[in-house]
Amino acid sequence: MLQSNPVETSVSPPADQPRRVLVVDDSRAQRRILCLSLQRWGYHVTEAASGEEALEKCQAEQFDVVISDWVMPGMTGLDFCKAFRAMPHESYVYFILVTSKSEKGEVADGLDGGADDFLTKPVSADELHARLRAGERILGMQRELVEKNRLIGSTLGELQKLYDSLDRDLIEARKLQQTLVRERYRDFGRGSASILLKPSGHVGGDLVGFFEINARRIAIFSVDVSGHGVASAMMTARLAGLLSGGSPEQNIAMTVGAYGQRDAWPPEMVAVRLNRMMLDDMQVDQYFTMAYAEIDLETGRVQLVQAGHPHPLVMRRDGSIEMIGEGGMPIGLLPDIRFDRIETRLFPGDRLFLVSDGVTECPTPDHQELGVDGLIAILKENDHLDSQALLESLVWNLNAHAGGGDFPDDVSGVLFDYRG
């Protein structure tokens, strides 16, 4: 029985609507006492005389708080609590069991059955207030959590839309970036160039290519822009225009000779011009590494510059492989850097390979990099293949080295065959 107090403190229901409370007790008198007090405090109260009736009402109406007697004929309050918890609910419902039981084992049974709190008979008004305030705090936190989850869900939905839009744009950007390398193979008569380019993501920061300087000389290059993603891809697009054979007048490596014929800056000057452009004109927080080689198709003479890029490799006809270059500084980091020219010579049957660090730094699943020695071993194993087949075999070997997963960095290179 509810014990009255001289002063009753109010438990405030939500401002928008009163809390809905279900009172379950086989005693009509006990129900009425509880209901009158709850109604005075502003709650919307529904009564049920048994656990079975209470379940029917719960199927038809949503409640915020349930106050149920434990000992009732037929379905006990604990059985009703278990059945109630098994039902689907729009939101959490605070469940209070009213009981004369005080043994720890029985209280544990009530908690295991889904009860949140207990009231001991005779019910004290102060204690009921305290239990309801505790329930209000929990229901308030639950309501706040639901609202935050709703906002998170809505935000995630908007982010998913943005991601899908960006993903579609990146797919189109990759198609456009692939057009930057219009030719994957070209026969120059006394030699041929083959290209390997596999971005690690939608868009990449590697650029490889070749262009004709004049009837006798060609240039090949391999570039790796720092970072990944859209910014790197935009930089490669800019560099592709600056090293394009289709627009010699815009090619930063090209110049005009004394009699108006097409000519080219020496490789080290090409690096200097690119470095000045990066620092003075573009002024971006990016840099790139590069290997750039000019090849004389008649004599096999090679002049090249290595700017922070992996060492170029000369694959001799007899199966030996030479690593050339001293490393050098990347382009776009510091002003007034000196870039050194490196010279070598190709003989009929030799090949020159410019390759990105996505190949030499390709890791195994336990993070062991392939390295230059690993690359040389793969090249020697496949040196009987023509260049296009060799590059394809290199990709297969890298895939096996990486354990069949995606490459963490762009994989690229240009392989030049000299026939003489």
UniProtKB/TrEMBL annotation:
It comes from the Bacteria. Residues 20-136 form the Response regulatory domain. The modification 4-aspartylphosphate is found at residue 69. Keywords: Hydrolase, Phosphoprotein. The keyword Nucleotide-binding does not apply. The keyword Aminoacyl-tRNA synthetase does not apply. PANTHER family: STAGE II SPORULATION PROTEIN E, STAGE II SPORULATION PROTEIN E-RELATED. This is SpoIIE family protein phosphatase. The lineage of its organism: Bacteria, Pseudomonadati, Pseudomonadota, Alphaproteobacteria, Rhodobacterales.
